[in-house]
Request: fold
Amino acid sequence: MTKADIVSEIAKTTGIDKGAVLSVVEQFMTVVKDSLAHGENVYLRGFGSFTVKQRAEKTARNISKNTTLVIPAHNIPAFKPANSFKADVAK
Reply:
């Protein structure tokens, strides 16, 4: 399902025009990205949590050049679904 599919589905079920729904969906994604970029987690009860995880520094190998390189510590976004979300998907 794409963003356009999500917008169409929400517009169809709520009766709100697609332009307004698209604006809300894009603003939601912007708020989530900005919050995670500033180190703030986003919790949506009954849906799940968007969190920032810290990856430790590690050593990797470039097999083709037979060299090692250090990947510095960095943050990555992560999503953990709520228990009710997991239960619905498992059905």
In short: Strands lie at 42-44, 48-55, 58-62, 67-71, 74-81. The CA atoms of residues 82 and 88 lie 10 Å apart. The radius of gyration is 19 Å. Residues 18-37 form the longest helix (20 residues).
